[in-house]
Specification:
Pfam families: Phosphodiest. InterPro entries: Alkaline_phosphatase_core_sf (IPR017850), Phosphodiest/P_Trfase (IPR002591). This is Ectonucleotide pyrophosphatase/phosphodiesterase. It comes from Phenylobacterium ferrooxidans. With 376 residues, the protein is of the alpha/beta class. The protein folds into 2 domains: 2-212 and 317-373, Alkaline Phosphatase, subunit A, CATH 3.40.720; 221-309, Gyrase A, domain 2 (2-Layer Sandwich). It has helices at residues 20-28, 42-51, 55-58, 80-83, 95-101, 135-146, 163-171, 176-198, 251-258, 301-306, 348-356, and strands spanning 2-6, 30-35, 64-66, 74-76, 106-109, 156-161, 205-208, 214-215, 221-223, 233-237, 242-246, 265-269, 288-292, 297-299, 312-313, 325-330, 338-339, 343-344. The two termini are 15 Å apart. The model has no long low-confidence stretch (mean pLDDT 97).
Length: 376
């Protein structure tokens, strides 16, 4: 069982005529789309895919977080020390931990969380994340593990590609740069399936993404200093959404400024975020959450002077079409020629657990969401 994430691979990228390998797998198996969990960010959704829990429950509520139980520390995905600190991860049980506990050897190439000791366990084989390692080399690492003797060979592999997300951010989702990254990622998938074929290995493949990508521009900017003085609150995160911790004694001022009608942005107290987002109870969510219209960015003039707004972004409303992520499944236990309805990405977890043959943990996902993909 090989679970593959192509970061930022929007569902409709598969319709551009530049993915011969993925398109072949889709024709030979099942194809659909998944709706990311809220917020539509990388770390929250990668943990959702391997736990079936929404971020509000598994605790990775953003790529940038603070936690009252871990004072003085800000979690960021670029900080190796926080990424490897189990305290940020231990609220949930990734599928590789469940698999290892049930006797299935697991391996991971760069899946977020795999280099962290979560609940005292890791995959048998894992690597420290290195973005400079090309997609082809990542595939070759997987194939090398599959060349091990049967008693050492992994039965569950999670494989992560990042190039489509990087290109989407830099060049935008409708750019030639993005299309080139999509084609390279597709070629890596072809390298993997060829490697499986020449080895005579049958594998169920579930190929998906954490989120899609929306185009942004300087013309669609919300400058927060025009709404709220800098000293009034700490902005934990900004961009496709904003999280805010009011300064002590200035709570009422912050609420008056934010919890009102804005032309291109809506703000809520954390406990009043709309129910469809399943978000707003975890201790790591700041008191106020602001969501702009898809394609609009919450920022400051200082930030824009350092890095002009261009390209693409994600984190927006997961119900926006631009945030939908691809889903392709193919293998001996996948039905052929199935078109799946859009499902919540929590449903990927029970599907992969069934294909892997392990008893899953309790989750927010339902096998019924993707059961039509199964051929057994």
């Amino acid at each position: 069982m090989i679970l593959i994430s192509m970061d930022g691979f929007r569902a409709d990228y598969l319709d551009r005529g530049i993915t011969p390998n993925l398109s072949r797998l889709a024709a030979e198996g099942a194809r659909g789309a998944v709706r990311p969990s809220f917020p539509s960010k990388t770390y929250p959704n990668h943990l959702t895919l391997v736990t079936g829990l929404r971020p509000d429950r598994h605790g990775l509520v953003d790529n940038v977080m603070v936690d009252p139980l871990i004072p003085g520390v800000t979690f960021t995905l670029g900080d190796r020390a926080t990424v490897r600190d189990p305290r940020w991860w231990n609220d949930a049980t990734p599928l590789w931990v469940t698999a290892e506990r049930q006797g299935v050897i697991s391996a991971s190439v760069y899946w977020p969380g795999s280099e962290t000791m979560i609940q005292g366990a890791q995959p048998t084989y894992w690597l420290t994340y290195d973005q400079t390692v090309a997609a082809e080399a990542r595939v070759d690492r997987v194939l090398a593990w599959l060349d091990l003797p049967a008693d050492k060979r992994p039965g569950f592999i999670s494989l992560y590609f990042d190039e489509t997300d990087t290109a989407g951010h830099h060049d935008g989702p409708d750019s030639e740069g993005l299309n080139a990254a999509v084609a390279r990622t597709d070629a890596a998938i072809g390298r993997l399936t060829h490697g499986l074929a020449v080895r005579g290995l049958a594998a169920d493949l579930v190929i998906t993404a954490d989120h899609g990508m929306a185009a942004v521009s300087a013309e669609r900017a919300i400058y927060i200093e025009d709404i709220l003085p800098d000293a009034a609150a700490r902005r934990v995160a900004m961009g496709a959404f904003m999280t805010v911790i009011p300064a002590l004694g200035r709570e009422a001022e912050v609420e008056r400024a934010l919890l009102t009608r804005h032309a291109h942005m809506t703000c809520w107290r954390k406990g009043q975020i709309p129910a469809r987002y399943h978000f707003g109870t975890h201790r790591r969510i700041p008191p106020i959450f602001c969501l702009p219209r898809t394609g609009w960015v919450i920022t400051t003039r200082v930030a824009v002077a350092k890095a002009p707004i261009k390209g693409g972004a994600h984190g927006f409303d997961p119900y926006a079409p631009e945030m939908a992520a691809v889903l392709v499944a193919q293998g001996p236990h996948i039905r052929r020629g199935v078109k799946l309805r859009t499902a919540d990405n929590v449903d990927v977890y029970p599907l992969v657990a069934r294909l892997l043959g392990v008893t899953p943990e309790k989750s927010d996902g339902k096998l019924s969401g993707l059961k039509r993909a199964l051929d057994r």
